[in-house]
Amino acid sequence: MSSNFFTLKTRQEKEDIRKRLLKARANLDFLSRKRSSFAIQEKAANILRIMRPERVVCYISYRSEVETQALISWMLEKGITVLAPVTVPKRRGFEISRVESLTDLVFGYKGISVPREAKPERVYPDVVICPGVAFDRLGWRIGYGGGNFDAYLKTLPEKTYKIGLAFSLQIVEENLPAEAHDARVDAIITEKEVILIKPFS
């Protein structure tokens, strides 16, 4: 069989997982989402206290994703430079722009919040905190299908620590199907556990 067959099969498997877990995540009730998001952000803050990063790229939560507003506020209070992804339409990947305050955000591409004065920063972060639709215990993730986070993660040096935030229902026990352009994370934080694929320092 041709490699195209296996590529199409892998993409269909990923799409099936994506649809199933997006539906499951969307069905979380409001209180459960709030409680779990708080627990996840608290765990993330505890890890960052140990790592003491200077610059962190962190997604600004959207729709049913694990919330990040409290974590971003905490990082800003601690003097950590927070950078947010800014999607550039029709281009894979994204730019990063500094977040000065949560009150200074506006709706950007597809309604995702971005800094009002989005100015591209040409720096490598110490840590990246990324969303996902599904994760496995080896660090592979499935996103929304656009490949933006994968493309960005591939540009980073090995020392940049990559953390995925997810509700426990988004952890898939079997290995996720992966393609050459996919990128892994180094740790996954859920409300129930921290899955370390690579130790942090």
For the biggest sheet, the summary is: 7 strands, mixed
Q: Terminal Cα separation, in Å?
A: 45 Å
Into which percentage range does the β-strand content fall? 15-25%
Number of strands: 12
**Domains counted in the coordinates: how many?**
1
Residue-averaged pLDDT = 92
* Distinct helical segment count: 4
Order of helices and strands: HHEHEEEEEEEHEEEE
Specify the structural class: alpha/beta
CATH class: Alpha Beta
Which of globular, elongated, flat, extended, rod-shaped describes the shape?
Answer: globular
Give the CATH architecture: 3-Layer(aba) Sandwich
What does this protein structure show overall?
It is a single chain. This protein has 201 residues and is of the alpha/beta class. It has one domain (3-196): NagB/RpiA/CoA transferase-like (Rossmann fold, 3-Layer(aba) Sandwich), CATH 3.40.50. The protein is built from four helices and twelve strands, in the order H-H-E-H-E-E-E-E-E-E-E-H-E-E-E-E. Helix 2 packs parallel to helix 3 (69-77).
Secondary structure layout:
Elements: H1 3-26, H2 30-51, E1 55-58, H3 69-77, E2 81-87, E3 94-98, E4 105-107, E5 113-115, E6 127-130, E7 134-136, E8 141-142, H4 148-153, E9 161-165, E10 171-172, E11 187-189, E12 194-196
Parallel strand pairs: 1-2, 1-6, 6-9, 7-10, 9-11
Antiparallel strand pairs: 2-3, 4-5, 7-8, 11-12
Helix pairs in contact: 2-3
Kindly list the characteristics that best describe this protein:
201 residues, alpha/beta, Rossmann fold, seven-stranded mixed sheet, three-stranded mixed sheet, 12 strands, 30% helix
